[in-house]
Amino acid sequence: MKKDDIIKLSDGQTATIVRGDESDFKNAYIVMLKDKQLRAVDRKTLTLANGVSDIRGRHVSRK
Q: Which residue in 5, 20, 30, 58 is a FRET match for 14, CA 20 to 30 A apart?
């Protein structure tokens, strides 16, 4: 997925990719939701991360 691609998340929401495959994140995309929130999304499941603890260590690792 590339920047500005529109994706459908596992919960049915649509989001715009802000940081996609070109980012340093190995297991996540950074997306902007319709309400302008920036959130992390698991690449495989397209599930929103719940909070900072979800995007540190366990789910997201740098290349």
A: 58
Q: Is 47 helix (H, G, I), strand (E, B) or coil?
A: coil
Q: Which helix (H) or strand (E) holds 16?
A: strand 14-19
CA distance 18 to 30: 5
Task: Give SS3 for 54.
Answer: helix
Q: Report yes or no on whether pTM surpasses 0.90.
A: no
Residue 55, SS3 per DSSP = helix
Other beta carbons within 10 Å of 1: 16
Task: Tell me the percentage of the chain whose pLDDT exceeds 70.
Answer: 79
Query: In 3D, which of 14, 6, 63 has the Cα closest to residue 28?
Result: 63
pLDDT of residue 41 exceeding 90 = yes
